[in-house]
TrEMBL record:
Organism: Roseicyclus persicicus
Any Pfam family: HisKA
Enzyme class (EC, first level): transferase
Family matches, as PROSITE patterns: HIS_KIN
Catalytic reaction equation(s): ATP + protein L-histidine = ADP + protein N-phospho-L-histidine
Protein name (database record): histidine kinase
UniProt GO molecular function: ATP binding; phosphorelay sensor kinase activity
UniProt superkingdom: Bacteria
Length: 469
């Protein structure tokens, strides 16, 4: 009973335009996929029937079945062209599916009934088995549209009942005879087919519901992502802009440009300027991360002279290094070495590596940047003698917002985003970033690129690379 209820409840789908496109397309796709399997069964059944029963009746029924198959193929073409939007076209396709189904199921049933009628003695083993196979095939493969399935199964059920009643009417046998046994067996088989149909139908519905859930989840994720993007763009415009002017004003006050600052106020202004600087760095990192994740970070790839790149980066961090009493030296590559990259993004990566090396070094420590080639590769190493990184911290070092050291030992703050951003930038260059480190001894971060052969070296800066202290 539960089976029938479920099947009956599903009839609404037949009229419900929501998801109808999917069901029609699924139905036709599967029908197309199974076309040769169906042809093989029809043909073998027809050959058997033509040999043992009336060949003309068999041929006529077989011709009608083949005709409906051809119509189905034409319909498949029409449905592929349907974009699912025009409801009138959808209704027309459905009507044609229903018509083809009715004609094909009737032709198959008549073909099988004609066999049963020709059998004058014994049970109707062959026609009943043919009918059973046809019904099972429909139950297994037509569950996308319950209306169509019901239509086909009802026609087969009528054929089953016709065959079941045929001998009862013909011979009027007593209840204890084999003919009645066959009748009850047919009723049992009918129930089995209905049950199987419901089973396949519910499975299909579950699959559709699952797909809908995934689609909804996808929509929610997209919406959340949009909110995040909007939030970050608000952060960029509403926070970054005023912060820049706060920072500039504090710097002006700090440098005495706005007049003499009372001694008691100096430390407070200094702290405010430092924190404004940290906040600006955090916002910059957040915006970079957002750009990378949205695939919006633009890279202008061009030949980059690595020696010059390193020189510029070292110069840019020299003020910071001097303030912390760290000496930075460079060992350039002896020969010209170029890579393909985005100059300003590579400077950003180098600044990150250098500022990390400086800030995790002990007072008076040394940082060394080495550029070298190894066959077709160029390697930039940033070596420090600082606190080092514990083993197995790789994920945290390159993770988002993760800081390996405890914040009480660091001299300078950070966002925990720098290396994550650097890694993503380096990966966009098809290059690698990695490190080796030992706690209390120091760390070496290195970048490895494919070397660019025959690059235009006229852009290279030939001045010797200065030692920055
Ligand atoms: P942060 O802004 O905190 O420096 P990064 O992403 O640049 O963020 O670095 C992540 C973490 O990796 C740092 O917080 C630090 O714990 C560790 N780290 C990075 N570079 C070094 C280094 N040269 N020496 C020791 N630890 C480092």
């Amino acid at each position: 009973m539960r089976s029938l209820n479920a099947l009956w409840a599903g009839r609404r789908d037949w009229f419900n335009p929501v998801g109808r496109e999917q069901r029609i397309k699924d139905y036709i796709a599967l029908a197309n996929q199974l076309v040769w399997q169906r042809q093989a069964s029809f043909l073998s059944a027809a050959v058997l029937a033509a040999f043992y029963f009336d060949p003309y009746a068999t041929l006529a029924c077989y011709a009608v079945v083949v005709l409906t198959e051809i119509l189905d193929q034409l319909l498949a073409r029409q449905s592929r062209a349907w974009d699912g939007k025009d409801p009138v076209a959808g209704r027309r396709i459905l009507q044609r599916i229903a018509r083809n189904t009715a004609v094909s199921a009737t032709a198959i049933s008549l073909f099988i009934i004609s066999m049963a009628v020709q059998q004058t003695s014994g049970g109707h083993f062959t026609p009943l088995f043919f009918l059973f196979s046809a019904a099972l095939f429909a139950a297994m493969h037509n569950s996308q549209m319950v209306g169509i399935l019901l239509l086909r199964l009802s026609i087969y059920a009528a054929a089953f009942l016709f065959i079941a009643l045929l001998d009862l009417v013909r011979y009027m046998p007593p209840l204890g005879s084999q003919v009645w046994l066959e009748f009850f067996t047919i009723i049992f088989v009918l129930y089995f087919i209905v049950d199987t149909s419901v089973h396949f139908y519910l499975n299909y519905q579950e699959r559709i519901a699952h797909m809908r859930r995934i689609e909804e989840e996808n929509e929610r994720t997209k919406a959340a992502y949009e909110v995040k993007s909007q939030f970050l763009s608000t952060v960029s415009h509403e926070l970054r802009t005023p912060l820049t002017s706060i920072k500039a004003s504090l710097d002006l006050a700090n440098n005495g440009v706005l007049g003499a600052v009372p001694d008691g106020l100096k430390p407070a202004i200094g702290i405010a300027a430092k924190n404004a600087q940290r906040l600006a760095a955090l916002i910059d990192d957040l915006l970079d991360l957002q750009k990378i994740e949205a695939g919006e970070m633009v890279f202008n790839f061009e030949p980059v002279d690595v020696n010059t790149l390193v020189k510029e980066a070292v110069e840019a961090t020299s003020g910071f290094a001097t303030k912390l009493g760290i000496q930075v030296s460079t060992v350039p590559c002896a020969e010209a070495c170029h890579v393909r990259g985005d100059h300003s993004r590579l400077i950003q990566v180098m600044n990150n590596l250098l500022s990390n090396a400086v800030k995790f070094s002990e007072d008076g420590g040394a940082v060394k940047v080495i550029v070298e080639t190894d066959g077709a590769r160029v390697r930039i190493s940033v070596h420090d003698e600082g606190v080092g990184i514990p083993q197995d911290a790789q994920d945290r070092v390159f993770g988002k917002f993760s800081q390996v050291d405890s914040s009480d030992i660091r001299k300078v703050g950070g966002t925990g985003l720098g290396l994550n951003i650097s890694k993503q930038i380096i990966e966009r260059h098809d290059a690698t970033i990695d490190y080796v480190s030992e706690l209390g001894v120091g760390s070496t971060f290195f970048l490895e690129f494919d070397r660019l052969e025959g690059a235009d070296t006229s852009r290279a800066d030939d001045r010797p690379i200065a030692k920055v202290a």
